[in-house]
Design goal:
The protein has helices at 2-11, 15-36, 76-83, 109-113, 176-181, 266-270, and strands at 40-52, 58-60, 67-75, 91-94, 103-105, 121-125, 129-131, 134-147, 151-153, 157-159, 164-166, 169-175, 185-189, 192-195, 199-204, 213-214, 218-223, 225-240, 248-250, 254-262, 277-281, 288-292, 295-297, 304-308, 311-315. It is an alpha+beta fold and 316 residues long.
């Protein structure tokens, strides 16, 4: 019984004894951990990679690898710090001819990275292959235009003048292979609805690829917008270049025409109606029955032809 009592007392702790024993165990573990870190170990670590090349002359087409995994040996303290990202050196790889290097096999990296790890030793490279895609940096001049798909006008309003983009061209810089695929015209996005007046705005210049960088941030787009009215009228029909050796049967000598005129010019235009004519050019026309569309001449530049009747003729 006395022996059992001794065992019970040995494993029976009061609160004071429990704290003392816990402190002793923690101290022993810390001592063991610190002592263990003084030894050498091997582990896999991720090292950042930096590629050295002439960045003014060359540009990556795809993102370059940013890290390489290597199995290294070294002091436990050193390995612990680097595994936590402390004092982790960049692995510098020199590219003398970057456009010619498409990949770097992992087994060749120890020779390239020797001496860059300080006290650590490279056992082997875990990363199998580093793939590279670097191209010549160059530029290309393209014309500027706008994409009219998202441009709409208020009812009764339409564009009168041609669309002007200032400047009319821009230099694009980027990888040569991507620039060769770029079209000669870059279309700017103009997103406007219910336009009812003259348009003049700055529009950003951008491409679909972030690697293709315009040398200008924006361009100015301008055009004239007017309110239109439609009118119907009859124009005198005149025939030109009629074959002299054949007889012409012309069904009518006037032609119905529908025109679109800026509202502000309507009064002035009505006073000029007698100056306009519909011309039927018979150059190269074959014999027989045919229908032709006359061409309206003498219209001011601000007038649009919406519709004109065709003319039936017969050449005998």
């Amino acid at each position: 019984m006395s022996f059992l009592r001794v065992l019970v007392n040995l494993f029976h702790f009061n609160r004071t004894n429990w704290k003392a024993v816990t402190l002793c165990v923690i101290t022993a573990l810390v001592f063991w951990f610190f002592n263990a870190l003084n030894k050498d170990y091997s582990t896999n670590l991720k090292f950042p990679v930096n590629f050295n090349y002439d960045k003014a002359r060359f540009i990556p087409v795809d993102p370059l690898p940013d890290a390489v995994f290597m199995n290294v040996s070294g002091n436990g303290w050193d390995l612990l710090r680097k595994s936590l990202g402390m004092n982790l050196p960049y692995m510098n790889i020199n590219l003398e001819r970057p456009t010619e290097v498409k990949k770097i096999v992992g087994s060749t990296l120890p020779a390239l990275l020797a001496g860059q790890l300080g006290s650590l030793q490279i056992n082997h490279v875990v990363t199998d292959t580093l793939y590279l895609s670097v191209d010549q940096r160059t530029s290309k001049k393209v014309m500027l235009a706008i994409n009219e798909e998202n441009l709409s006008f208020a009812e009764g309003f339409e564009r009168l003048s041609p669309i002007v983009v200032l400047p009319d061209s821009v230099e694009i810089e980027g990888p040569q292979s991507l620039l060769e695929l770029l079209t000669d015209t870059l279309r700017l996005e103009v997103d406007e609805e219910e336009v009812d007046g003259d348009y003049r705005k700055k529009v950003p210049i951008f491409t679909d690829n972030d690697l293709l960088v315009p040398m200008l941030a924006e361009a100015e787009v301008l055009f004239e917008v007017v309110e239109w009215e439609e009118m119907s009228t009859y124009l005198t029909l005149e025939v030109e270049n009629s074959p002299t050796a054949v007889r012409l049967n012309l069904v009518k000598d006037t032609v119905a025409c529908q025109l679109r005129v800026p509202k502000r010019e309507m009064e002035n235009f009505n006073g000029q109606l007698g100056e306009h004519r519909a011309v039927l050019d018979l150059t190269g026309l074959r014999r027989g029955d045919q229908k032709l569309l006359p061409k309206v001449e003498g219209l001011p530049p601000y007038v649009r032809v919406v519709r004109i009747d065709s003319v039936a003729i017969r050449l005998y």
